[in-house]
Fold this protein.
Amino acid sequence: MPMAALAGNWPNPPHADEYAVSFDSGRAVRLLIVPALFDEANKLRHFTVEVMRALDRAGIDAMLPDLPGTNESCEELAGQSLPSWHAAMEAAARHFRATHLLTMRGGAICAPTGLPCLRYAPVSGVKLLRTLLRAQVVSDREAGRDTSREQLLENGREDGLALAGYSLSPEMVRQLEDAELAAQDLPDIAQSELGGPGLWLRAEPDHDAAQTVALARIVAERLA
Amino acid sequence: MASNLPVPVAESGDIDLVLRQVLQDVLGLSSERVAELDAESGLFGHLPELDSMAVAGLLTEIEDRLDILIEDDEVDGEMLETFGGLITFLSDKRSDA
């Protein structure tokens, strides 16, 4: 029988506890979901939780931890780096005794190692960074400031950067530039398999129930 | 080779189709709404949901689907103001490639 989502904390030593939403009934397959990054995290939040509900109905436990510095976290985003996110997701995977991983978009570049991992529409750090830089340039132009991506990037590598409202540390900027998608065994889940356009593209957050069902079905099939 | 000849119809039609699809995906428009877009239809500055993040996503998606690169100094109000303006920019870009 479908259950209600549980909200709770998980330890991320030596830092403060972080929040997670989970559908945890102690079943055999326990899926840790690494959320999408930055603006895409907001666009895909509702979709991600709805996928968890559909997985719950399919008999799969799923846990969605916050990345430190995002959502309900007490940490500063400007204090984060890709290694800090990676370490946090490792801690979450241990705490929740995850058996498998599902990464959403840019979540692929901070996934814990050592567990079978399905990647939904994975995107590299450099591509996410390019879009954030471009958004900042468009916004600067609108405000009458003449900036360029090269110039912003050069400053960001040394001093960090506020991009489209996200404060990135210099480490985060440099690491995103280098964050390519690693090759892995399990085939990626392409957006085209879900039968609609990616919801991270939407100017305003939106939802598509059919895509939710499609992604949950694909995940359940590949984990069976 | 650069040429002053008009962009071939097939290619221009292809850009039109890609742009309509990307706008549909970004703005969540119905097929009917997207089919009604014409050269004069206003984009950036006319559609409140098309903020800087959405424009950035739009341009990145167009780059991917048309296999082109759009430079920062090419992005200005004129290029983004109308559907027709963006089509013209992309057609010029394609013919330069």
User: Anything to note?
Assistant: The radius of gyration of chain A is 17 Å.
